[in-house]
Amino acid sequence: MLPKRHKLSRATFPSRKEQKLSWGGKALRIYAYVSEQSVVPQFAVVVPKKLCKKAVSRNLFKRRVLAAIRVNMNAFERFSCKKYVVFPKALTNDIPQKSIEEDIRSFLREYAKK
């Protein structure tokens, strides 16, 4: 789990109108927002009920994504974007942990080039 200071709250959640960088991988879609207010990177994982009906499965997917992010936290701290929202692309039960980790690493590699 991530510390509370690294999680987006409802008050700090970015609006749809804010400027963002969109990235799509095999299993995840990541939106990165530039924020002058945030000093540390903050994350949210959004899992629609259409993709996963059971709350247990949605929460399990969120924990798996946040665990993969925690491992790569140092890389996120170097970027100018400080707010990140992560969405699954397919049914959460079908996405293995390895695919989540690969998508996060490839996002970091691609974003580091920009």
From TrEMBL:
SUPFAM superfamilies: Ribosomal protein S5 domain 2-like (SSF54211). Transmembrane segments: none annotated. This is Uncharacterized protein. One of its GO terms (molecular function) is tRNA binding. Keywords: Endonuclease, Hydrolase, Nuclease, RNA-binding, tRNA processing. One of its GO terms (biological process) is tRNA processing. It comes from the Bacteria. It comes from Candidatus Lloydbacteria bacterium RIFCSPHIGHO2_02_FULL_50_13.
